Amino acid sequence: MTVTEKKTTSWRRRVAAASVAAALCVAGGTGGGILATQVSSAAPVTTTTAVAAQAASTGATLTAAQVAANVTPSVVTVLASTAGGGVEGSGVVLSADGLILTNNHVVESASGVRVTLSDGRTLDATVVGTDATADLAVLRASGTADLTPATLGSSADLRVGDTVLAFGSPLGLEGTVTAGIVSAVDRTIQDGDTNLSGLIQTDAPVNSGSSGGPLVDSSGRVVGITVAIATTGQDSGNIGVGFAIPVDTAATVAARLAA
User: Fold this and answer.
1) Count of structural domains within the chain
2) Looking at 10, 74, 90, 105, which residue is catalytic?
3) Has residue 120 got a pLDDT over 90?
4) Which residue, of 116, 141, 166, is where some domain finishes?
5) Are residues 157 and 232 in the same domain?
6) Which positions carry the signal peptide feature in this UniProt record (predicted)?
7) Which of 84, 185, 190, 224 could form a disulfide with 244 if both were Cys (CB 3.0 to 4.6 A apart)?
8) Could you tell me the pLDDT band of residue 191, with boundaries at 50, 70 and 90?
């Protein structure tokens, strides 16, 4: 890549949520850097009552179709109303009684939040807690006790080349599933004065609206939460460089926010 080509590349954070985009610069890190918020060092997932999504120990490798069928009921579309209009993102179900994990940038400054479930129901939701530094938020959908919690895996053992699937609502297309691999781990990117570090890089296609959706392994266990993509200056769409917050970090933050 020439110097000129490098100048035409923008690292974009929050572009995964419709109507939200911020230019990012490369911040370095292992193997290079891209979008990341300050994340605590990855610790083993701790299952708590507040976050009733279990960490799976071992799991057999499934076909992509089997993973999609198993995980899709645990994925929601998040619709946030703001003064400037609406923002659409994605989320993953943590508990049967309505706890949902998404990105903070999907719901920040929202005057109202709704979630659309995989079965077509749309429910009002409240923001339980947010962490702007980690770019994570926990919501609670109202009037339900029958949601399907996702199974949380661990991001600590991810290896470059592992197969992953990304779930979400890119460009408003609910129930979308894309496949790819882990392209790199421990990426760091800078957005102004804020860094996101320890990110998983993947070539599984994600676009506007994918923010907050789960990145899962070949056994259907959540290993990350989609947070950003890299784009060229001419094209704000996917170019095969996406990023996810490791689930070991996300689960720890979610448990704290839901407590």
Assistant:
1) 2
2) 105
3) yes
4) 141
5) yes
6) 1-32
7) 224
8) low
Q: Is residue 34 part of a domain?
A: yes
- Chosen domain end from 124, 141, 158: 141
Interatomic CA distance for residues 214 and 232, integer angstroms: 24
Residues 230 and 185 in one domain: yes
Q: Of the residues 118, 135, 197, 208, which is catalytic?
A: 135
Residue 155 and residue 128 in one domain: no
Give, in degrees to the nearest 5, the angle at Cα 182 between 176 and 185: 125
Is 118 assigned a catalytic role? no
- Containing domain of residue 98, as a range? 74-141
Q: How many Å apart are CA 108 and CA 102, to the nearest integer?
A: 11
Residue from 169, 208, 211, 218 carrying the catalytic annotation: 211
CB–CB of 258/51 below 8 Å? yes
Which of 159, 115, 166, 158 has its CA nearest to residue 248? 158
Tell me the mean pLDDT in the region 119-139: 97
Q: Is 105 a catalytic residue?
A: yes
Q: Residue 77: helix, strand or coil by DSSP?
A: strand
Q: Are residues 126 and 156 in the same domain?
A: no
CATH number of the domain enclosing 137:
2.40.10.10
User: Within 13 Å of residue 62, how many CA atoms lie on the same side as its CB?
Assistant: 18
Tokens of 167: 């779930």
pLDDT per residue over 64-80, tens digit each? 999 999 999 999 999 99
pTM to 2 decimal places: 0.81
More confident residue, 58 or 41: 58
Residue 109, judged by CB atoms within 10 A of its CB (0-12, 13-18, 19+), counts as exposed
Q: Is 124 among the residues known to form the active site?
A: no
Residues 135 and 160 in one domain: no
